[in-house]
Amino acid sequence: METTRCPECGRPAELVDRCVLESTDGPVEHAHVRCVLRHRFWLPVEYLTREPGAVGTPRRTPVPAAALRRR
Ligand SMILES: [Zn+2]
Known about the structure:
Elements: E1 2-5, E2 12-21, E3 28-35, E4 40-44, E5 69-70
């Protein structure tokens, strides 16, 4: 199971699914994220926040509101 941080509340979130969506710039991989407070998002994987201790540099890129689509 992959984990990340909820873009809304910052709590731990589970990465429950991935898919590739077409965009004007070509296919973009999106991730379905569900946090412990049951916030759910589809967002591009480049906006995922890595858990501390994960391989790679943690990203702190702010997530544009337009990138978040609640379901
Ligand atoms: Zn949340």
